[in-house]
Amino acid sequence: MTEANKTLSIAVASGKGGVGKTNLALNLGFALHELGQTLVLLDADLGLANLDVLLGLSPEKNLQDLLGDATAENVVVPLAKEGFVFLPSASGVAELVELDEDVRALLLGKLEALFRQYDFLLLDLGAGISPTVLSFAAMPQERIVVITPEPTSLTDSYALIKVLCTQHQVRNFQIIVNMAESDKEAKSAFNRLAQACERFLTLPISLLGVVHRDPMVTESVRHQVPFMKFAPTCQAAQDIREIAKKIIERRIKLRDLISRTPILKSLI
Ligand SMILES: Nc1ncnc2c1ncn2[C@@H]1O[C@H](COP(=O)(O)OP(=O)(O)OP(=O)(O)O)[C@@H](O)[C@H]1O
Ligand SMILES: [Mg+2]
Fold first, then answer.
1. Domains of the chain
2. pLDDT band per the 50, 70, 90 thresholds, residue 2
3. What pLDDT, on the 0 to 100 scale, is given for residue 109?
4. Which ranges of 139-226 would DSSP assign to H, the alpha helix?
5. Ligand 1 atom 9, closest CA
6. What pLDDT digit, counting tens, does each position of 112-141 carry?
7. Which runs of consecutive H residues, i.e. helices, occur in 62-214?
8. Cα 59 to middle of ligand 1, angstroms
C-alpha cells in the first residue's frame, strides 16, 4: 500500500511584480520551522534567482541537475540544522516546460520522493500570468496570492486569479496583503479584490493575513539575512508568525484532503 501524503504544498504567487513574494515565502519558511514544522522551499521563479540573493548563497546545483545523476539530497541546500531545505531552480525552470514525458516523469519522481519527507512545500513563483507561472501556480494544493494596497496590484492580482479560475479550474486562493500601512488599509484592499472575485467569478477568497510595511524588511534584504533572523521581533516578523500559525492549523484541518491529493498535480 502506498503511504498517504502528508505534505501540504503552497505556491506564493502575485499578479504584479515586486510585491514581496520572495521575502514572504522565505520568512514564512523560517517561521514555520521555528514552530517545529519541516519544509522544502522551492525557487520556482523564472527570472532572477532571488532567493539565493536574499540568503546570500550561490548554490552549486539546481533543479536541472536532477535530470542527470544527482539525487534531490545532493541538490538541496540546508537552511537549518534539520527539517528545512532550499531547492534552487531558477535557471532551470524555463527549460523544464520543454521536457518530454519520460524526463518529466523522472524528475517528478525524484521531487515527490523528496517532498513527501516534509510537512510543507513552499514554492516561490515569478510574477504575472505567463504560461509557466500559471502552470506552477495551478500545481500545488494551495495558493497564496500576495497583494499590496496599490490599485495596480489589485487589478493585476484579479487578472491572475481570473485566469487560474477560468482556465485552470483553480478555486482556492488565500490572500496576504503586504506592505500595508494599517489594518484598515489592508482590509479595504482585500475587500475590493474579494468583491470583484465574488461578483465576476462567483469565487469566494480568504484573507490569510496582513504584513505591515516595515523598514526592517528592506534592511534585512540589504544584509542578505531573512528578517525572521535579522530582526525577529520586528512588526513584519510578528505578522509572519501569525500567518505561519494559521497555515499550520490549515494543514491539520485539511489532513484528509492532503492525504488523497498529489503534492504537485502534474509537473507543468
Ligand atoms: N512588508 C514590507 N515592508 C517593507 N518593504 C517590503 C515589505 N515586503 C517587501 N518589501 C520590499 O519589497 C522588495 C521586493 O520584495 P520581493 O523581492 O520579495 O518581491 P517579489 O514579489 O518576490 O518580486 P518579484 O516579482 O520580482 O519576484 C524587497 O526588496 C523589500 O525591500
Ligand atoms: Mg520574487
1. 8-260 (3.40.50.300)
2. low
3. 84
4. 151-168, 183-201, 215-222
5. 20
6. 899 999 999 999 999 999 888 898 899 999
7. 72-75, 90-96, 101-115, 131-138, 151-168, 183-201
8. 22
